[in-house]
Design brief:
Layout: E1 6-13, E2 33-43, E3 49-53, E4 56-61, E5 66-72, E6 81-87
Antiparallel strand pairs: 1-2, 1-6, 2-3, 3-4, 4-5
């Protein structure tokens, strides 16, 4: 199975009520940080492929596109933040 070579990761705040959320976003705010992460060729502690770049290190399940582990600048993310990803396609 071929794994995607890169993903774009978006770090977004989640809201517990409609206060602070944009209309029609179902409680998810605008991205406060993003990064393009590339496959490192290593397997992370979770057993999934490891991706790194722009201060983020993530273990991502390529079958479900689920982020199983994430460090931002060497630290775990705070409660109230969520991660969204999309496969990054390269031209060429």
């Amino acid at each position: 199975m071929s794994h995607p070579q890169s993903y774009e990761i978006l770090l977004v705040p989640e809201f517990t009520d409609s206060e602070g959320a944009d209309v029609g976003t179902s409680g998810v705010g605008q991205a406060i940080r993003s990064a393009v992460v590339d496959a490192t060729g290593a397997t992370g502690e979770t057993g999934y492929p490891r991706y790194a770049g722009e201060g983020m290190v993530a273990d991502i399940d390529p079958a479900t596109h689920t982020v199983e582990a994430l460090l931002v600048d060497g630290s775990e993310i705070d409660y109230g933040l969520s991660v969204r990803i999309s496969e990054k396609h390269t031209d060429g």
